[in-house]
Amino acid sequence: MKIQIRKIYGTLRPSEKKVADYILGYTGAPGGLLIEAVARDCQVSQPTVIRFVKAAGYEGFRDFKYAFVKEEGRREPEDGDKIDLYGFRLSRKDRLEDIPGKIVTTSMEMLEETLQSVQIREYKRAVEAICQADNIVIYGVENSICTANDLLTKLTYLGLNCRMYGDYYLQNVSAVNLSRKDLAIGISYSGCSKHTVEMMALARQAGAKTLVLTNFENSLIAKYADILLCASNRQFLYGDTIFSRISQLALVDMLYAGALNMCYDKLSRKLNKTNEIVSKRAYGENDEVL
Predict the structure, then answer these.
(1) Of 284, 251, 266, 265, whose CA–CA distance to 154 is shortest?
(2) Taking CA atoms, which of 52, 131, 213, 247 is between 20 and 30 Å from 229?
(3) Sheet of strand 182-188, all strands in order from the earlier edge strand to the far edge
(4) DSSP class of residue 10?
(5) Quick check: pTM over 0.70?
(6) CB burial of residue 15 (10 Å; 0-12, 13-18, 19+)
């Protein structure tokens, strides 16, 4: 049910999205849901609730409620023998052959959440900033390093002047030497990674434009963002973020494709040159190895 709601989320009216958000975040017993209560809590009319229910594929609120109860009833009770990893519930009782399907389902849910969370206005500003920057420096730590490397690789393929430093001292030095024509990109799932937050603060003090990729719009790092892209607004334990890269990498691909689209003539020529160079480093069909 919740997967279906996320699939149709983008097609809903603003008032219907209030109902969708309410259901997606609902933690009470679904059997106690009343249409009057949903309408009151969402500050919408009862007909709006009905329109949402029908958009989700149900005949009426009763059918919707029954499906909700049935879905929640299939969930195993909480116990100490489970691990929650960014929305992915792993239990000792899980069958090994079921894990691939659970991984893919969780990834699909996170991508749907990312699509819902991205503000198009901010996305356009982010792409413009990338295309207009003289220099781009990317900052991130721990799990976000994977995302930062992917963004570095893609922007470099486009011929953009992009750098990333693994040494903390060089990160500090680079941040304080940025200018108004430069762009600093900070990547942090939690938005609280001390070093990445500090780099965004230093870059902003130096006059550079700052772009932040995070999951929580109200996180500390957002205070230092001229442009903010959020992958999700759902809170998960910080230590259980092994799957956070799925949503972060989706943002990277959006920025890469967006930059190529906005500056197509210029960047496509550079990308073609890059591809020519890279293709020379690959074995041909009839080439011998060593």
Answers:
(1) 251
(2) 52
(3) 162-164, 135-139, 182-188, 209-214, 227-230
(4) G
(5) no
(6) middle
Nearest-angstrom CA–CA distance, 152 and 158 = 10
Q: Tokens in use for 165?
A: 């430093």
The answer to whether 184 touches 211, Cβ cutoff 8 Å, is yes
The count of other CB atoms within 10 Å of the CB of residue 180 is 9
Q: How far is CA 81 from CA 33, 75, 86, 90, 266, in A?
A: 30, 14, 16, 9, 55
First CA to last CA across the chain, in angstroms?
55
pLDDT digits (tens, 9 = 90+) for 65-78: 878 877 765 554 45
State pLDDT tens for residues 56-65.
999 888 888 8
Number of H helices, E strands in the chain: 12, 7
Check if the beta carbon of residue 7 is closer than 8 Å to that of residue 58.
no
Q: Scanning the structure block, which residue is given the tokens 């393929």?
A: 157
Task: Record the tokens describing residue 121, joined without a space.
Answer: 């206005």
Q: d(Cα 202, Cα 184) in Å, to the nearest integer?
A: 10
